[in-house]
Design a protein that fits this description.
Distance between the termini: 33 Å
Oligomer: single chain
Helix content: over 70%
Number of strands: 0
Structural class: mainly alpha
Strand content: under 5%
Shape: elongated
Largest sheet: none
């Protein structure tokens, strides 16, 4: 099921959004959908990473951001 959501954007976001949609031969809606999916992915990844870091620290294990990235890539 699809729903419609109206949003208000300042010209400083609308102009580059429209230009990107034209360049990518897609719709502004699709770019916004992709941006939201990315936002939610990053938010969930951060939540899971933070939870894991707490568990690792509790066990006396420390990892750098780079080490974590290497392990999940």
């Amino acid at each position: 099921m699809r729903n419609t959501v109206a949003i208000s954007l300042p010209d400083s976001l609308l102009r580059p959004l429209s230009a990107e949609a034209k360049e990518e031969h897609t719709s502004r809606s699709e770019i916004i959908r992709q941006a939201l999916k990315y936002h939610f992915f990053v938010r969930e990844f951060t939540r899971v990473r933070n939870k894991a870091m707490v568990e690792l620290a509790r066990k006396g294990i420390t990892l750098t951001e780079e080490e974590i990235f290497k392990k999940v890539s």
